[in-house]
Amino acid sequence: MQPRNMSMSGVVDLAAVKAAGEAKQKAEEARARAARQQGEGQAAPVSLVIDVDEADFEREVLQRSTQVPVVIDFWAEWCGPCKQLSPVLERLAQEYAGRFVLAKIDVDRNQMLFQQFGVQGIPAVFAVVAGQALPLFQGAAPEQQVREVLDQLIQVAEQRFGITGVSVEGGEGEQAAPRAPEDPVLAAAHSALDAGDLAGAIQAYRNVLSDNPGNTEAKLGLAQAELLQRVQGLDAARVRKEAADNPADVQAQIRAADLDLVGGHVEDAFGRLVDTVKRTAGEDRDAARVHLLELFEVVGADDPRVVAARGALARVLF
């Protein structure tokens, strides 16, 4: 039986359906506790922009992320681009009115967090949703690009985790509308995947998509279930030898890329197929290209490794 919660990310994977389901359950429990506390007068609406350090990171970021996406701005006083980006993020946090919370972390005073997130340079922007981290972008990006990234983040938080935001400080904001109950067919698909019934899960996800073609969670689940079905029974050593011995054999490279991805070697899987596209032509090239696009669906369109691989693919094709 293949595991469902494959490692797909260097920090914490938002693309694993099982992890999303477990995090969603924890988030729902945390929201229920918060609602009870608020009813007892124990909880107050949150601020939209907060300064965070290592001592309060768990409370202010990890725990808070079960109710609202937390966007982290890694910055420093000496950083010129940070001074361009931070005001944009702060203004957007107010404009989005509780759809996300901005946590500002001074890297000079919080080296441990800087290292744990694997930050390569600042400004760097990450998000935490239901306790899971996601790299968003690095550098002083244009405001329109920042808006697009935030919109994608909010969509991911709602569709995969049922997290829709919080009320803002001062009572001006409103609690987000209650989330609709989970589609029972989608729940059945998740259960089939958990049980190792890959054929049943694939059919169930396809049933969901036939009624709702835009369901992100079903698309992700289907892509992962199909990937797991493809690698079942493969002899890893044999597959890798065949790929090494036959670099122009598209099907050999596809099988090896699938194994790379299941093993968490995302860049290797993408690079292998980009190279295959480069060295082939006609139907072989198209098969490699289409399969690479399918693997993008497994990891998630917003993953920076997918963005980089799309760029590499475009350079090969054009």
TrEMBL record:
SUPFAM superfamilies for this protein: Thioredoxin-like
- Pfam families linked: Thioredoxin (PF00085), TPR_19 (PF14559), TPR_20 (PF14561)
Report the transmembrane regions from the record: none
Q: Where in the numbering of this chain does the Thioredoxin domain appear?
A: 38-155
InterPro entries, from UniProt?
Answer: Thioredoxin-like_sf (IPR036249), Thioredoxin_CS (IPR017937), Thioredoxin_domain (IPR013766), TPR-like_helical_dom_sf (IPR011990)
Q: Which PANTHER family match?
A: THIOREDOXIN, MITOCHONDRIAL
Protein known as: Tetratricopeptide repeat protein
